[in-house]
Amino acid sequence: MKPTVEATRRSIVCRSRKRLESGEDYLEIFDTAHSDTEGRFIGIGPIARGIIVVVYTEQEDDRIRIIGARFATKREHDLYRSHMDLNK
Predict the structure, then answer these.
(1) Domain membership of residue 58 as a residue range
(2) Residues 29-45, mean pLDDT to the nearest whole number
(3) Whole-angstrom distance, CA of residue 67 vs CA of residue 73
């Protein structure tokens, strides 16, 4: 049986999050524009296939809710590289 698009997306997000949490350096930004009802964060970092952006919120019970994940745009990629260059 072929996995659904949602199941595939969840699998990619879970693997990507594990990679970001594995100690690899990544850029974390507090998303002030979208944090009216909950604190949202934007994580930009590397996975095996490139640089990704993960938007998430931290729940009260130490869980993280993934809002979205995608490959970084050129601007986000450049922002991540600049951050890494400054923090060497």
Answers:
(1) 5-86
(2) 85
(3) 17
